[in-house]
Amino acid sequence: MLQRALLALTMVVATVSGAVADDAPPIPKEVVVVTTDQLKKMIDGKQKFLLVDSRNGREYKEGYIPGAVHVYDKEMEAQKAKFPADKAHAIVFYCNGYPKCVRSLNGAKLALAWGYTKVHVYTAGIPEWVDKGYPVEKR
Predict the structure, then answer these.
(1) How many helices and strands, by DSSP H and E, does the chain display?
(2) Residue 110 to residue 85: CA distance in whole angstroms
(3) Quick one: which of 35, 39, 51, 122 could link to 68 by a disulfide (CB 3.0–4.6 Å)?
(4) What are the φ/ψ torsions at residue 51 (nearest 5 degrees)?
(5) What does pTM read for this prediction?
(6) Tens digit of each residue's pLDDT (9 = 90 or more) over 37-83
């Protein structure tokens, strides 16, 4: 009886998880998707871009990609001053991995609405960055 209940619960969780991923908003065509290796090359090559961690404050403090500024997607409007005046300046947003986490996409969409023209999303996010053994800083 307990095994059947656990199996049923597992199936419900799997269905709900799948529904969340399927319901994730699409990435606009104006947003460039960046892979882990591409982001690492951009950082190592000292390319000029703003790296934005769109996660909440607790998550950011637990570990973020070096050089990232923290701008929680829900607080972007209040932290607009952290963004460059030059609307052609490249911006890369990341969070906990799209489509599970859509905070980086939310940030990218708002940056587009503000007129930025070089907007990127690192869809793999911090989980893959950590899995590859790349550096993480903590506050």
Answers:
(1) 5, 5
(2) 15
(3) 51
(4) -100, 120
(5) 0.83
(6) 999 999 999 999 999 999 999 999 999 999 999 999 999 999 999 99
